[in-house]
Amino acid sequence: MLLMFALSPFLVLGGGALLLMLAEVFSRRPSGLAIGTTIVFITSGAFSVALWLYGIEFLPVGILSPWILVDKFTLFFNVLLCLGGALASLLAGGYLVEYKLNRGEFYSILLFATFGGMMLASAGDFLTLFLGLETMSLGAYALTAFRRASPRSAEGALKYFLLGSFAAAIMLYGIALVYGATGSTDLARVGAAFSHGVVTSHPMALIGLVLIVIGLLFKVSAVPFHMWTPDAYEGAPTPATAYMAVVVKSAAFAMMLRVLLTSFGDAESMSWSAGWPPALAAIAVLTMTVANLIAGRQDSVKRMLAYSSIAHAGYLLVGVVVALRSKEQAAAGVIFYLATYTVSTIGAFGALILLGSYGKEAVSYDDLAGVGKRHPAIAMAFSLFLFSLAGVPPTAGFFGKWFIFRAAMDSGFYWLTILAFINSVIGAYYYLRVLVFMYMREPQPGAAIAVPMQSRHVKAALLLSAVFVLALGLAPTCTLDAAIAAATTFRM
Amino acid sequence: MELAAFFPNNNFSLIGVILALPLIGAFINGVWGARLGKPAVRLMALSSVGLSFIASLFAFCALHRASEALGHGEHQGAARLSWLAWEWMHTNGGQFLQTVPVELKFSIDALSGVMMLVVTGVGFLIHLYATSYMANDPGFARFFAYLNLFVFSMLVLILGDNLPVLFIGWEGVGLCSYLLIGFWFDKTENASAGKKAFIANRIGDFGLLCAMFLLASSTGALDWAGIARGAVSLVNPSEGAQIHIWPIANAHYTGWLQFLQPTHPITITAATAVGLALLLGCTGKSAQLPLYVWLPDAMAGPTPVSALIHAATMVTAGVYLICRLSFVFVLSPAVMALVACIGIATALLAASIALVQNDIKKVLAYSTVSQLGFMFLGVGVGAFVAGFFHVFTHAFFKACLFLGAGSVIHAMHSRVHDDVASQDMRNMGGLRKYMPITFWTFVAATAAIIGFPFTSGFFSKDEILFKAFVNHSVSPYKTELAARGVEVWEAPTWFGPMLYTLGVIAATMTAFYMVRALVLTFFGEFRGWSIGRASEAQHGHDLESAEKAGHVHGHGHVHGSEAHDDLTLPGDAPHESPWAITLPLVVLGAAALFAGVLNMAPFHFEPLGHWLDPVFEQALHGSVELRGGAEHAEALMWPLAGGGVAAFFVGTALAYWVYVMRNGEPAHRLATALPRVYRFLVDKWRVDEFYNATIIATTEALATMANAFDKWVVDGILAKLTALIVAGFGSFLRAFQNGVVNTYAAFMVVGGAAIGWFMIVPHPEVVIKAEGAAQMVEATTGPGYTYRWDADGDGLIDDEQFSDRSKVTVQVEPGAKKTIRLEVKNAFGITRSKEIQIAGPDAPAVQMGLANAAQ
Amino acid sequence: MLSTYAPMFMIIAIATLIAGLFYTFATVLGPKNPTPEKMMPFECGSDSVGSRGVKLSVKFYLTAILFVVFDIEAVFVYPWAIQFRQLGWFGLASMIGFLSVVAIALVYVWRKGALEWES
């Protein structure tokens, strides 16, 4: 029974997904599905919180190891992914109805993909890891292709699928090589083998490491493995974009932390002259810079947000690099950043959704001209989320950046921090550009004006996100403590 | 008992109620005020402040109980009720990610408790008054939203437990003051008066900010208790703890700037620097020299605002801050002396200007500046209780005076319909008959301010004067510093008597101009019959009226039906104001008369003094010497009180003689006899003109230059160029995003290959550490790396076999250089080598034989 | 070492044998009555001659995919069946869970109408 309790977040999400699937086909009236999905997400998240409070040390989670590791790291990510999923399904509840896409499988896919994400965050073995990865990715491909009538959607999905399978294959090959060298797929045992110098006797383990790192970098859409991202993000229906930018990315970072810190966390693999951290640092700088520079040149706000999510992956990679000095600090910083990033990004996409309606979508900067006057409340919410993404205090994003940059400074990565800081200034430029258009421009005479949709779902999602953004900015203590506790999983 | 159980001393959340009520009032009135209608706005505004006052009373009782519990011992310490509202960030989880020390913490102690009661109590009365005074103003809801917000900010200022929180309140009251001065913003004068207040206050805030940084760096704390603990480090005479005045930031001037380089850096103690910076902040907020100029102009705001903000509460914030940080000020006798000097100079200057003003609000404004000067004098001589007591009594009598003046203006306005003329005392007179309640309360408050014996002002002012005479500020660490050969500046012996004498002169002037105002307003015959709507044309010719023009208000006063009468003829008389105006007057007038009983120093009945003693205990410990000893000082108490009484008699008698017996004729004669002096005083010593010509002109020139720089260099070159470069790179990079999936895959492969290449090719890197005479060369690790070395620099590999040996020790002679070589082989059998040049230590070291590191 | 693989080689051998036998017997014993229709290469019932762009109903693929999905799911039952006793009640419960999920999927597919050819 206690084992069931330990697995309850997974069981609730999986069972809920199945129930909703049946409900959809039997009712033929998918209007209540969004709320149902949200409730399933929230319930699953609530069970995770309950587990956290109950104390996982009192639960027989050992027998699940290494397939599913129920630790604080897992639970934190369960909550985070469920929060992202809940907000995304609320957005979908408004968006799909408005754009006549209201087919119930969206919600099932959302739930199953999140299930995969949770599995990814909790996997202690390469097999379950890969299973979770594919469950999540397949869902994401399907979500991207959800606008069946739109060629962009199909194109984006196809590219995503092709490159995604390519990356998955690369990663799988890496896993195979590592397994061949170490004789185990258990992350911890792989880690033990690496710290006992498996590379010396089996050089292919090192190739395996490289291939796995490439697969991880693809999933977090780091430059130069990012090129599918803008196309997929733009083609997908906006709630799916928000979902991918938030949940898929968070789960991918959870996987990255787990794999890199557990399996490849030995001193030699993490050497600053020859290990993965310098490679990751270079990728981080490249990611931030390229994404920010291109984001500034976009005309479509949605595409700008897609590039912005790539840039955020760059900041997060800076946080991962900190593991070189302190794994715990790195994990804590990244986890907390993901929490702040989740609520801000979902909010920003949500505001963009709310500003448009069928045939009168808000896509480009010009569509946003004068919104500040016409719809002050939405404009204010949008500004709040953009401020958070830009890292302006006292919003959530400020603390996210602050902890990562500070951790990088503490670890002596001054140049990395400075570059990240310069990049966040460049980032502020294009976020604020939205504000300039909203508050200081008037629409061109005769230009099509975006008309906000009427949706309580989307408004609820925005309100929730705004509350979280402010709460994390004004009183980050509680969440930060949780992130630090979750990071103790990687304590040496 | 029950109350104490709900609100423990260290989590006294009742403070939250006290603070939240005005804030909620401000929010509701500000957001929905226009829709709610006037009765609801009135109810909201009054109930929020009123309930806050009641909550304050409860809090005060709890504080009293807490201090009782501490006992009345000699070193009982200050009772304190504190409430931590919110911490910005605080982690208890890890050894990293430390706390951001931003705490929104509030506390009530004896000092802030009294202040809190004054703010909410007087604030409530003035709110009540304003409901009637502003009844017909279209901005009714906005006014009360601002006023409630002000009460909230003032409470934050008072109750803040650390400087940052105080600063929030400090800025908040400044903002509210700005908004309320410019409340009738459609008049240019009002808007510019608001701006003037804002700018003068910003200068002061700069000082306060500097003080905060200095305190944080010297004492390591910003909360009161922490500063008090670390205060001793402020007087540290050692080189590092001093503040360098010149050269700034320890710069070193060479070349043609050599002359700027002093032989010894000019330094002051941190205590003096902090004191000066705080003082700058206080002079800004409390309208002292040299930043007092904004306060008289601030009278452009509605009269209740003048009473609440610019007389009773906000302007005393500077005095409050000095009292609050008294233990910092006393560390530097020079700063104390400067506080006293600024106080007395301001008192004299403002009093002299008030002598000749004709606008009733102007007289009261300069009188406020002058009284604030007295308060500064008090705290500057170490008489913190006396200074604060004057804050307390002044709140009552000056609020009463302003509200009385408002009542008069209200009445006059309904008669003469002219903003300027209705404030001009030359148009008043004889109002005693028409508005008896206003008259009697005005008399009571005037009696208090001029020091009529045994009124509140008498006790507070006399104690300040007495203390100014007998107190002598010394450094509390005098003996310790003397032992280390450091001398601390002390005021000369004539300093106290001088302050006393000048104080008596200022008090005499106070008595004169206040009695003059009283007589001109209420006695004699009403002179307003001949002024009416036509007066606008009329006073255009009147030079003297034009002098004091510019501070006007007057939307929304009662415009009764008599407005259509022929006003050049005797018409409706001025009338008494409604109860909402007179009730606050009566209460405040009574308080002005009798509040003095709380601290009757000459009768040795000082409950307020005892109440406040714990607060000032640390400050007064060893920092004040009594001239001629305690016995002597005691003996001087009554004789010195004579000076104050004499000032009252002389000033009053002179005014009575001039304005009642001779009907103002001597004043006219004097003005014609000494026209230049008269003009000089009427022009307010031409300080504004002086500032215009010097500071503002310089600032404007600088601003013009900065503007040009910004336009051409910053905007033109830097911003545009940067944007262009960023945009160019963006466009370049965007070209790769061509939508072809093959390209995407190709980039992935290239990226993957780069990572692979990096990981698969070994990287021979070393870290060199000096270890005694030898240097340790350590190769960085990498996956599957093995090493071999040429550590002796002979060009030959020491050991053919690759091994795990990642460190070698190399000894190089001083001044010599040596090239060693490292080869790294990784698991794939790829080898890379690196030559490393190692230089010997710079300084000649003991000759040593070369040790082969291979051994 | 190689003996581990002996069963595998045996299976290969037997399979080859059986296939060879069937082919041989069919060729030798079967009646031969060739027509041009019969001699054409057989391609899943469709004409192998003509334009390449023959339009096939998407239903073919859907059905095929569904077949593959459920076929693969069924494969998981075999190893379980072999280890049935060792796995015990836990194994039974797991398999019931697994089959319920498959059943739900089947119900879903059914209700969605994916199994109906005409719609």
Describe this structure in words.
The complex is a heterotrimer of chains A (492), B (855) and C (119). Chain A is built from 21 helices and no strands. Chain A is an all-alpha fold and 492 residues long. The model of chain A has no long low-confidence stretch (mean pLDDT 91). Among the domains of chain B are: 153 residues, no CATH class; 76 residues, Immunoglobulin-like (Sandwich), CATH 2.60.40. In chain B, helix 4 packs antiparallel against helix 24, helix 9 packs parallel to helix 14 and helix 21 runs parallel beside helix 26. With 855 residues, chain B is mainly alpha-helical. Chain B contains 30 helices and twelve strands. Chain C has a domain of 68 residues: Methane Monooxygenase Hydroxylase, Chain G, domain 1, CATH 1.20.58. The mean pLDDT of chain C is 85. Chain C starts with 5 loop residues before the first helix and ends in a 7-residue tail after the last helix. The longest helix of chain C is centred in the C-terminal third of the chain and has 29 residues. Chains in contact: A-B, A-C.
